[in-house]
DNA sequence: ATGGTGCCACA
DNA sequence: TGTGGCAC
């Protein structure tokens, strides 16, 4: 049985900012994004980025601020009404857009610590990772077993250290032996001195008391999986301590036998806490859980399930007969769902600490929407410049270079969405109709904000990434957009542009810039 | 006046 | 290859 963990940095962006400005420590802090239209001024990471009057939208909330009811996506000034002493930190701005590089770098440092001790580590986002600590847990148990059997714990530790990762056969054997003798289980893995902030999901008592009680259960109550899970919890606690000590960041974690439960567990007790999810706790945990709380069921699919099946909790979903489930979502989804509803999830922790793509983009809301190719070119240049910087760093650090360039645009069609007008390309008939039936109907024949919005459509086009150089990438991206504009005809608004570099291939360090300079100068256009 | 990213499944 | 969904 695997032992997996989900590690989640607590209100990460605010932690990064507090570390950069320690006077904020222990105070309510939010991080906001605020991009005045057309303003290309940069706000460097090292600038004073405290903006008490900013009304940007909040993307991270410190736990002190959460106590006052401040939430993500709130406007900063609305939050300040809830919490007058709130510190508002603005995300750095470069190339006319928010630049979250300082958080990426901090996240990479965390990933580095989490993956330094042999755990398989999958970067799930800038502030989250999945770990497979099965090997480490087995190793810990084997060492404990050896110590218990031999009496000399030092000798046991030394032996296990010698066995190292290559000794997994013997270690597994030791674990199995231990499991075969339940009487030895209790004393086998001593409860760590400090279990502050530890929890066992669905325990009779909350917090450390519950953990202690769980740990102190009669030896006959333990099974191998629980033993492994307990050992995994020790491994994860050590990793979290390393993150705290080496980097100064607090994080929370869930430890379980599947990704889905580990993820659920990490959110049960925050901040700076960790939660074990033993198999025995799963029915009690999932039964009353609202469907949208499960990863993957937070959106339309979950909504479809709730309305289509008349269920609202995971327990109710688990009780739906398979045929009924199949009728609604198909064979494959039904089988997957039924297992998911029991906390069963075979998804592996993929050994991947680096992003598979690097992208940047910007939205242009309302009046800032782009209507001409000149503006598009200007922003593509900005985005490509940032992209090149990030690709340069990525190549230097990871000896790889992307081979594919994708440009995506979010667009609004200009065609009027009046009742008798042609359908807006990219918009479903239902949406167009809904828009036409609304207040905008009176303005049929003219483009109004309402029917502009009805025509939103995303378009993406890819091309080989010739050279990771801003001018080249911007030019190639512009070509794709020009072609789209030509095909599309007159009358469009672009409300978002994104460029992405992907399909990385190995590349030697350092040569990129020199090669591109000596090959052919990019100043052809 | 909910931004910027990144992953994945599907067709 | 492009679209859409999900998550934070």
Automatic annotation (TrEMBL):
It comes from Tetradesmus obliquus (Green alga). PANTHER family: DNA POLYMERASE ETA (PTHR45873:SF1). Keywords: DNA damage, DNA repair, Metal-binding, Nucleus, Transferase. This is DNA polymerase eta. Its main location: nucleus. Residues 4-298 form the UmuC domain. It is found in: Nucleus. It comes from the Eukaryota. InterPro entries: DNA/RNA_pol_sf, DNA_pol_Y-fam_lit_finger_sf, DNA_pol_Y-fam_little_finger, DNA_polymerase_eta, Rev_trsase/Diguanyl_cyclase, UmuC.
């Amino acid at each position: 049985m695997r032992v997996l963990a989900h590690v989640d940095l607590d209100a990460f962006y605010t932690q990064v900012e507090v570390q950069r400005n320690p006077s904020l420590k222990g105070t309510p802090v939010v991080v906001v994004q605020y991009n005045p239209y057309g303003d290309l001024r940069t706000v460097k990471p090292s600038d004073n980025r405290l903006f008490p009057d900013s009304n940007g939208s909040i993307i991270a909330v410190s736990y002190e601020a959460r106590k006052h009811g401040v939430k993500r996506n709130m406007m900063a000034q609305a939050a300040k009404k809830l919490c007058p002493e709130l510190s508002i930190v603005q995300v750095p701005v470069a190339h006319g857009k928010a630049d979250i590089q300082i958080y990426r770098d901090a996240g990479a440092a965390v990933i580095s610590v989490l993956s330094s001790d042999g755990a398989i580590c999958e970067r799930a986002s800038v502030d989250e990772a999945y770990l497979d600590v099965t090997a480490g847990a087995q190793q810990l148990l084997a060492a404990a077993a050896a110590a218990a059997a031999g009496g000399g714990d030092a000798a046991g530790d030394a032996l296990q250290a010698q066995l190292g990762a290559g000794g997994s056969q013997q270690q597994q054997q030791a674990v199995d032996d231990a499991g075969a003798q339940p009487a030895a289980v209790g004393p086998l893995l001593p409860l760590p001195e400090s279990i502050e902030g530890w929890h066992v999901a669905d325990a009779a008592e909350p917090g450390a008391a519950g953990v202690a009680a769980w740990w102190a259960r009669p030896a006959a109550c333990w099974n191998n999986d629980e033993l492994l899970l307990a050992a995994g919890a020790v491994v994860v606690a050590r990793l979290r301590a390393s993150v705290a000590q080496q980097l100064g960041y607090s994080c929370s974690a869930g430890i379980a036998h599947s990704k889905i439960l580990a993820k659920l567990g990490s959110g049960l007790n925050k901040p700076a806490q960790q939660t074990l999810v033993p198999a025995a706790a799963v029915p009690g945990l999932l039964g009353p859980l609202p469907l949208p709380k499960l990863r993957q069921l937070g959106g339309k699919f979950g909504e479809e399930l709730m309305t289509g099946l008349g269920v609202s909790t995971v327990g109710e979903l688990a009780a739906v007969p398979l045929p009924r489930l199949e009728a609604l979502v198909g064979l494959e989804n039904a089988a997957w769902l039924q297992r998911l509803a029991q906390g069963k999830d075979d998804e592996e922790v993929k050994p991947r600490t680096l992003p598979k793509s690097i992208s940047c983009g910007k939205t242009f809301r309302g009046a800032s929407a782009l209507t001409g190719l000149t503006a598009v070119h200007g922003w593509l240049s900005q985005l490509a410049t940032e992209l090149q910087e990030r690709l340069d760093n990525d190549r230097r650090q990871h000896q790889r270079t992307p081979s594919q360039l994708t440009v995506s645009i979010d667009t609004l069609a200009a065609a009027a969405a009046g009742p008798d007008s042609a359908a807006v390309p990219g918009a479903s008939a239902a949406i167009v109709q809904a828009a036409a039936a609304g207040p905008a109907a009176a303005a049929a024949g003219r483009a109004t904000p309402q029917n502009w919005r009805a025509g939103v459509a995303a378009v993406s086009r890819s091309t080989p990434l010739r050279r990771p150089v801003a001018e080249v990438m911007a030019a190639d991206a512009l070509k794709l957009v020009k072609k789209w504009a030509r095909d599309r005809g007159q009358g469009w608004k672009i409300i978002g542009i994104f460029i992405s570099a992907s399909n990385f291939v190995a590349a030697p360090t350092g040569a990129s810039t020199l090669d591109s300079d000596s090959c052919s100068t990019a100043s052809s256009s």
